[in-house]
Structures are given as C-alpha cells and as structure tokens.
Design brief:
This protein is an alpha+beta fold and 266 residues long. The chain is built from ten helices and six strands; from the N terminus they run αααααββαααβββαβα. The N and C termini lie far apart (40 Å).
Length: 266
C-alpha cells in the first residue's frame, strides 16, 4: 500500500530532523499546547502502536483502548494517559518510536487498503488509518521543526494529507455544529514538485489557490490561514479555511496568526 510507504518516508524524515538532538533537548516545549518534543514523540509512538494493534491484533487493541477511553472520560489528558503506557523518555523513547513506526509501516504495507480497522470512533479503512498516522507525524513534526528554526523540505507524499483535508470538508463544519455548505470549494494547488493538483468543480466560483503544503498546514492547524499565501475566493472558501480541521475529536481552534511559525535558530 503506497500510503504505508509514504508514512514510512514521513517518519524517516522526522527521524532525520531529530537525529542531531541530545537527550536534554527533548524537554523543549513547542507551540502546540506547550507539548515538549518528548510529549510529541510519545504521542506519535502511542498511536502508531495502537494503529498496529488495530490491524494485527484487534482484541488486544480493544483491551488497550478501553482503559485509555475511561481515563479520557475521567478527565485525564492524552499526555498523561500516554505516559502511563510508555514512561520511557528522551533517546530511549525515540528508540521505541523508531522500532514502532517501522513495524506499523511493514504491517500496513501488506494490508488490503480497503480492510476495516477499529479506532477510537468509527472504524476506518486501512488506507485511512495509515494516512492519519502520516498526517499526525507530519503535523507534529512541524511543531518540532518550528522550534529548531528549520524550514522542512516538502515532498509530493503530502498529497495524502491534502486528500484527507478535502475529504474532511464536511467534518470541519459538522464538528462545530454548523450547516455544511452544499458544495466544497475547488482547489487549485501546486505540489512540492511543481505539479498542479486540482479538486472540485472547475466551474466553481469558490476557489482556494496556492501551495499544497500550505493547504495541508491549514487543515492540520499547524498554521493560521493568515500566515500562508493561500488565496481564498468566495465566502465558503474563506469559512472553510477559517475552521478547517482534518483530525477527529472536539472542535479545535486554529492557532492565532503569527503564533505557530518557524522560529529563528537559537
């Protein structure tokens, strides 16, 4: 499955990003909920682990999910829940994550893309499951890159995240209790390699134009629309980019303009 290979490449890109770091660097906070590098790496490892179980050991997945959901219902935060499961920190945690992402990639590379796997909410296809893992790896990796003052080199595998953003157009409104517009805006995006990616009706008067990676940044809420060069033509296009959310859970507010950005290297 190509999406599994893309997840693997995304994880390896993050692996290269953090390779020069020392153990003490992982206590550095980021612009994402003030999570530290370590909190992010543990979060990625926890849900990679869960995605692997969902595909390869469904009963074990349900057994591990139950206490996690109960803890969330009791008001515990995700970082606290994930810390209980994986108390390792620093470079030991990175080693666990490295082994884990290769295991889950290998498992999904052999899966039928249409296989159904359980998750916290409704079940999803194996393709959607591993795409979500790529999306989280890319989005959380952005928070680390921002703190390190590094502008990442993007790759056309980001198309999976763009498609996820397109597919969650309705969700971005539904999760906020808003009426879903009848038709999504057309997208006219330029890929990292310079290709043109187009979605939606070519005759639509609602259009979003710009770089594909900036669209992905907005739908993953790693950037405010005001901090990109995206051009939104039409009320629906503007409203979507203001409220875009390609991930599950409660409605989340995008970062304030200028808040999540690539910082100057220390």
């Amino acid at each position: 499955m190509q999406q599994a290979s893309d997840f693997l490449a995304e994880s390896e890109a993050l692996e290269q990003l953090i390779a020069p770091l020392q153990a003490s660097d992982f206590s550095h906070p980021t612009g994402f909920k003030s999570w530290t590098f370590e909190t992010i790496m543990r979060h990625l490892h926890f849900w990679n682990h869960m995605a692997n179980l969902a595909l390869t050991a469904p009963d074990a997945f349900q057994a591990e999910l139950k206490p996690a959901v109960e803890a969330m219902m009791a008001g515990k935060t995700l970082p606290n829940i994930e810390l209980v499961k994986f108390p390792e920190g620093g470079l030991d945690l990175v080693s666990l994550w490295q082994t884990g992402f290769r295991e889950v990639a290998a498992a999904y590379q052999q899966a039928d893309p249409s296989d159904r796997v359980s998750w916290v909410g409704p079940s999803m296809s194996a393709r959607s499951s591993i795409t979500a893992r790529q999306m989280e790896t890319w989005a959380h990796g952005q928070a680390i890159a921002d703190e390190l003052g590094i502008e990442r080199s993007e790759d056309d595998r980001i198309r999976n995240i763009v498609v996820l953003g397109v597919n969650t157009f309705g969700w971005s409104f539904t999760v906020r209790g808003m009426e879903v517009p009848e038709e999504p805006p057309a997208l006219r995006l330029t890929s990292p390699s310079g290709e043109s990616w187009e979605y939606g009706s070519p005759d639509s008067d609602q259009v979003i134009r710009g770089m594909a990676h900036e669209f992905a940044q907005v739908v993953t809420q790693t950037r405010n629309i005001a901090d990109t060069q995206l051009v939104c033509e039409g009320e629906v296009a503007q409203l979507w980019m203001k409220n875009a959310q390609c991930f599950a859970g409660a409605p989340a507010e995008p970062p304030a303009p200028g808040f999540r950005r690539t910082k100057s290297p220390v």
